[in-house]
Design brief:
The structure is a single chain. The protein has about 140 residues and is mainly alpha-helical. The protein is built from five helices and no strands. Helix 1 runs antiparallel to helix 2, helix 1 runs antiparallel to helix 4 and helix 2 packs antiparallel against helix 3.
Amino acid sequence: MIPENFTAMVDDFIATLRTFASGDYLRDEDREFWDQPYNPDVLNELDEIFRNYLSEVPTIASSLNTDEAGAQTVLTSIRELYHRISAFNATHAYAVIEPEEDAEINDILRCIWRHYGVIPAMLESIPHLFDDDNDPVNIL
């Protein structure tokens, strides 16, 4: 079972995206010229992507050793997650996940896998969804 604090991290991440998409953070007078970046309902799909990944983590971790082969298993699982997130984001005109969110996802993944004892140097090689020019990258 995945530790509850990781589920809470994903909950917070999705909640922040929902607040951004709904404009709940804006004052009424600021809404006049505001355009909704995406429908907050699409976040249900992203939440499901994360929940599915979190449900896989304990299985991956139980067969994990902390050597290079174990690190590669983790990286493969992360690439598969990022592939699903990238496909989701492309479906929504890359409006949901931007470089700032990519960094947050990366931080969540580092926390999760650090908890399971993955080699610290490997955690630095977790891929990103965007390149240095903030363009989406092909994960697989």
